[in-house]
Amino acid sequence: MAETTEQAKPLAASAFQSLSDEEEALSTQLKLHQRKCIKCCGCFIAFLLILAVTVLVLFFTVFHIKDPVVRMNTLTLDLEPLLLPNGSFSFRTDANVTLLADISLKNPNFASFKFNNGTTTVLYGGTVVGEARTPSEKAKARRTIHMNVTVNMIPEKILEVASWVKDAISGSLTVSTSTVIDGKVKILNIIKKHLAVEVNCTIKYHFLSQEIQENCRPHFL
Ligand SMILES: *[C@@H]1O[C@H](CO)[C@@H](O)[C@H](O)[C@H]1NC(C)=O
Ligand SMILES: *[C@@H]1O[C@H](CO)[C@@H](O)[C@H](O)[C@H]1NC(C)=O
Ligand SMILES: *[C@@H]1O[C@H](CO)[C@@H](O)[C@H](O)[C@H]1NC(C)=O
Ligand SMILES: *[C@@H]1O[C@H](CO)[C@@H](O)[C@H](O)[C@H]1NC(C)=O
Ligand SMILES: *[C@@H]1O[C@H](CO)[C@@H](O)[C@H](O)[C@H]1NC(C)=O
């Protein structure tokens, strides 16, 4: 009896167990399936998130095209040759008067910036008294390039300006310069952006000290 009860118990238990085992197996399978699904969904969502973050980061860094930074580092102007050495207010028109501009261009982008021929114009009293070309060049990604531009001014044009004598007597005169640089940034031939910058300067030249005071401002076109 003891044996049968002992045998029956495990039998019953095993029968009960086998049923619950089946159920359990099914439920574990279901759970596994669910877990797989959750894992899958989690992976997919994580992947989407990573993709979104990557796209956002790229959008704000690599694909975000910024304007170049153009600076007039050194401006040199010498109008002394215009004056005759005998101290009178007579001027020579065969003098070579030049304006030298050391221009730097910083390209903050992750792609190179190619720009066309530009011009640097010198104005005095609203009249163009000199003009020079700035070369077409390529500024590599995140690099700064320097350009030396020499503007040969036309003495006759300066002497033609009505205020010239008054300015010469007062000891200083003010000219303005305008430099325009325009070009393109291309990223993988997909994203193209046209960028143009104009730098206008006013330069006050003092005859006695031969010093200049400059004030430059860039404008984005
Ligand atoms: C100064 O020199 C120029 C050219 O040499 C001459 O025409 C002018 O008369 C001179 N002026 C004086 C005050 O000597
Ligand atoms: C101006 O420059 C030219 C060419 O560089 C030269 O032939 C001429 O003598 C110069 N004139 C003066 C006044 O220095
Ligand atoms: C740039 O300047 C050079 C020399 O003056 C000229 O031959 C060329 O046609 C110019 N290019 C443009 C795009 O203006
Ligand atoms: C520009 O001129 C300065 C002084 O004359 C010189 O040191 C510099 O190397 C020049 N830069 C270029 C790019 O020609
Ligand atoms: C810069 O100078 C040029 C030439 O004088 C002028 O046409 C332009 O309007 C100026 N730009 C600004 C923003 O003042």
Automatic annotation (TrEMBL):
Origin: domain of life: Eukaryota
Origin organism lineage: Eukaryota, Viridiplantae, Streptophyta, Embryophyta, Tracheophyta
Protein name: Late embryogenesis abundant protein LEA-2 subgroup domain-containing protein
Every Late embryogenesis abundant protein LEA-2 subgroup domain range: 103-202
Record keyword Protease present: no
Pfam families: LEA_2
PANTHER family given in the database record: LATE EMBRYOGENESIS ABUNDANT (LEA) HYDROXYPROLINE-RICH GLYCOPROTEIN FAMILY
InterPro entries, per database record: Lea14-like_2, LEA_2
Membrane-spanning parts: 40-63
Keywords tagged on the record: Membrane, Transmembrane, Transmembrane helix
